[in-house]
Design goal:
binds flavin-adenine dinucleotide, single chain, 8 helices, 24% helix, 6-stranded mixed β-sheet, FAD/NAD(P)-binding domain, alpha/beta
Length: 332
């Protein structure tokens, strides 16, 4: 089958790899100019900052096996960061920190998507605006910077939407009743703060969950393996604060999040570089039961981290991988 996959995040790339290995001909369309989606690394003159996914864990046997393979290939390494919980400006070692092994891609999170995209026909800078019926097949309406009007791509025998739930619903609604099953699954936004300091902050921890602050998580990015030396920190604002300040001026957001960083850490050292980035669709607020959606008659479906895929919650890299693997096993 000739199959189009919309989205070159972890789910789309894993699905593409698996289906291609089964002998199908695959084209992946990606809106951004790079692959990896929310598993991203922001490049600056000071080096990369992992401003999206911080690390991933593997609780299912299948994903553990896959991660072991990635580790063997040299794509990922365990992150042994010292983790803390901060409340009222006081940091305590996080009690549950050792329950999971945490992994990161090297030399930055974006590298995993780049490895997975090898050998796949991925077309970046291609925003899919509509999916349309063409007899028994499918066409895609593609918007790109190079062509002033939407171009048509296809025909394809099957289409897989590997995008966040809100975007998947919009694409599926006009052509498939699967859209009704998506319901209210929504991905909350997240403002990310990136900071670089001239000297080590010596806070005694490399990552911390924070209570009672605009920031819910901070991490010393340069404590992760194979990063460039330096003192880089990441902060993630809470979903509630990010939603409330979604349309604020980035400069104001930066000021507020930097203040929250100083309050939480008790460090008044000023960064030499600071910036913010808004993830419009960051983490799933609710879970769709099951592994994925697939309409076998029409050959259209969806996968991503918003499916439970046998895990307790949603919104993690493992959900995306399990969901994509399940769809690739189903869509043959
Ligand atoms: C700030 C932040 C922190 C996180 N921290 C963690 C963590 O610590 N641990 C963890 O396990 N997970 C974490 N996550 C979640 C993790 O990043 C995701 O679960 C995983 O990357 C989702 O992969 P995906 O392929 O389902 O979606 P995505 O990575 O979102 O990929 C979807 C892709 O589809 C593309 N796309 C969307 N619409 C279109 C269109 N119309 N046309 C073409 N392309 C389109 C997007 O550009 C994107 O590249 C975090 C996410 C964020 C944002």
């Amino acid at each position: 089958m000739h199959i189009a996959i919309i989205g070159a995040g972890l789910a789309g790339l894993v699905c593409a790899q698996r289906l291609q290995a089964q002998g199908h001909s695959i084209v992946v369309y990606e809106r951004d100019n790079h692959v990896g989606g929310r598993m991203g690394t922001r490049q600056t003159e000071l080096g990369g900052f992992d401003h999206g996914t911080q690390y991933f864990t593997a609780s299912s046997e299948r994903f553990r096996k896959e991660v072991a393979g990635w580790q063997k290939a040299g794509w990922v390494l365990p992150w042994q960061g010292r983790l803390a919980a901060i409340e009222n400006g006081k940091a305590k070692p996080a009690g549950h920190a050792d329950r999971h092994r945490r992994f990161v891609a090297v030399p930055g999170m974006a590298a995993l998507g780049e490895h997975l995209a090898q050998g796949i026909d991925v077309r970046t800078g291609q925003n899919i605006r509509r999916v349309e019926r063409y007899g028994e097949q499918w066409l895609l309406a593609v918007q790109s910077d190079t062509v002033p009007i939407d171009a048509s791509a296809g025909p394809f025998d099957a289409v897989i939407v590997a995008a966040p739930a809100d975007l998947a619903r919009l694409l599926l609604q006009p052509v498939s009743t699967l859209a009704e099953r998506i319901g209210e699954e929504h991905l909350a936004p997240c403002w990310a703060l990136i900071l670089s300091f001239e000297q080590a902050l010596d806070l005694g921890y490399d990552g911390a969950w924070i209570k009672g602050s605009r920031l819910k998580w901070i991490a010393r990015d340069t404590s992760k393996p194979m990063r460039r030396p330096g003192e880089h920190w990441i902060g993630h604002a809470s979903p509630e604060w990010s939603e409330e300040h979604l349309h604020d001026d980035p400069e104001r957001v930066k000021e507020k999040l930097l203040r929250a960083f100083h309050e939480a850490t008790g460090s008044l050292v000023q960064p030499v570089f600071a910036d913010v980035y808004c993830w419009r669709h960051a983490q799933a607020t609710s879970t769709l039961p099951g592994d994925c959606l697939w309409d076998a008659a029409a050959r259209i479906g969806a996968c991503g981290d918003w499916f439970a895929a046998g895990l307790d919650g949603a919104g993690r890299a493992e959900n995306a991988w399990l969901s994509a693997s399940a769809l690739a096993d189903t869509a043959v």
